[in-house]
Amino acid sequence: MERPADLAAAIDSAAETLISVLDSAASRHQVPPTQLRVLALISSRSETNVNRLAELLDVVPSSASRLCDRLEATGLLRRVADPRDRREVRLVPTPAAETLLRELAERRQRAVQVVLDRMPQRVQHDLLSSLLAFGRAAIQVPEQQTDPAARTA
Predict the structure, then answer these.
(1) Measuring CA to CA, which residue among 152, 150, 153 is closest to residue 142?
(2) Which of 15, 66, 67, 72 is the most buried (most CB within 10 A)?
(3) Which are the contacts of 12, defined by CB distance < 8 A and separation ≥ 6?
């Protein structure tokens, strides 16, 4: 089966629409999107310190540290000494942050479900199959091959 010429554009458009749906679910929070992203990154990586966070965000460590200062001031983040190396400081989300992230995930899923409920059941099934296949294919491709320019070089 031949790939439609506009498939990549359609996926890009769908991704933008999905981001809009997800952002609208998150807009009720008082926590800025960048700080939510920091909390999500730290929550999913238990060994994160400020330098690693800076790498993940592609910012300088001082910027990452200021973000952490703001989160710490609002009670969403703690800095704790690493038990293996007391010179290392780990970033740990507080229980309030974990609750916030869980509630946000639930709201985002409900917002997506509202859209899915407008789609026929068969289309929902096809979408699920396609997304799973897309995820598997993305994992199988080495990073340098995802850049079209790298493939033509």
Answers:
(1) 150
(2) 67
(3) none
pLDDT, one tens digit per residue, over 19-69 is 898 888 877 767 888 899 999 999 999 889 999 999 999 999 999 999 999
In the structure encoding, which two tokens stand for residue 31, read together?
């926590």
How far is Cα 140 from Cα 124, in angstroms, rounded to an integer? 25
Nearest to 80 by CA among 36, 47, 35, 34: 47
Give the start-end residues of each E strand in 39-130: 77-82, 85-93
Tokens 């960048």 -> residue: 34
SS3 string, 110-145, reads: HHHHHHHCCCCHHHHHHHHHHHHHHHHHHHHCCHHH
pTM: 0.75
Task: Give me the CATH code for the 29-140 domain, please.
Answer: 1.10.10.10
**48 exposure class (CB count in 10 Å sphere: 0-12, 13-18, 19+):** buried
Question: In sequence order, what are the beta bridge partners of 80?
Answer: 90
Amino acid symbol at 60 = V
